[in-house]
């Protein structure tokens, strides 16, 4: 089971995946940390890890609040190890009139490993750069869902005009890894509604043109 929770001024989707034991994985806690912690406590969920799809500012704003409230480790791709600490890398320094966004360093850096097991949860990991150099897609086969951050959206793809972005690389990542998954696979994107691999194969204009 998972819950989609849009947070912050850009309505970045955080996701909470949980099981019958009330253990939870929190993906991309981007803002409104106090509200997110309150919701988790209300639902009596026990986060055992925070998984970041990438480290842009709108995906990391509540990382430390959730980490400190539940004493759970943060996972991030090694290619973005410094991004939590650096507003120039995570993009928050580009925005005028907003507080710079930072967080403490990740507890665990992910490299080229293909799987990650946390408690009763096992994920297949796909390094899917293009939107950012360390973007990771987490596939949870038990529920046929990917948590893909800003790689793929309903009839859209991630922007590629930020540091390390490259549209050709992004499209290659999507075709190499995501479009090889079952068409029924739910795409839990970083912004906007849920979609499926099959729907994007049929209707996404960016993929059709590749």
UniProtKB/TrEMBL annotation:
Give cofactor(s), names only. Zn(2+)
- Family matches, as SUPFAM superfamilies: Metallo-hydrolase/oxidoreductase (SSF56281)
- Gene3D superfamilies hit by this protein: Ribonuclease Z/Hydroxyacylglutathione hydrolase-like
CDD domains (UniProt xref): metallo-hydrolase-like_MBL-fold
The record's keywords, sorted A to Z, are: Hydrolase, Metal-binding, Zinc
Q: What residues does the Metallo-beta-lactamase domain cover?
A: 11-191
Q: Which domain of life is it from?
A: Bacteria
Any Pfam family hit: Lactamase_B
- What name has this protein been given in UniProt? Glyoxylase-like metal-dependent hydrolase (Beta-lactamase superfamily II)
What lineage is this protein's organism placed in?
A: Bacteria, Bacillati, Bacillota, Bacilli, Bacillales
């Amino acid at each position: 089971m998972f819950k989609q929770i849009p947070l912050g001024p850009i309505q970045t989707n955080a996701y909470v995946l949980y099981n019958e034991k009330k253990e939870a994985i929190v993906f991309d806690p981007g803002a409104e940390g106090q509200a997110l912690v309150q919701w988790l406590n209300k639902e009596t969920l026990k986060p055992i890890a925070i998984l970041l799809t990438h480290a842009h500012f709108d995906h990391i704003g509540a990382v430390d609040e959730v980490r400190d409230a539940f004493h759970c480790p943060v996972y991030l791709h090694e290619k973005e190890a410094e991004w939590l600490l650096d507003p120039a890398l995570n993009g928050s320094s580009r925005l005028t009139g907003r507080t710079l966004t930072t967080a403490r360093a990740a507890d665990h850096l992910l490299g080229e490993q293909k799987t990650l097991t946390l408690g009763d949860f096992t994920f297949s990991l796909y390094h899917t750069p293009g939107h950012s150099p360390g973007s990771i897609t987490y596939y949870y086969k038990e529920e046929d869902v990917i948590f893909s951050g800003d790689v793929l959206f309903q009839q859209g793809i991630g922007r590629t005009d930020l540091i390390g972005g490259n549209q050709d690389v992004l499209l290659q990542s999507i075709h190499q890894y995501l479009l090889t998954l079952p068409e029924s696979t739910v795409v839990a994107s970083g912004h906007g509604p849920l979609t499926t691999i099959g729907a994007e194969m049929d209707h996404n204009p960016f993929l059709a043109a590749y």
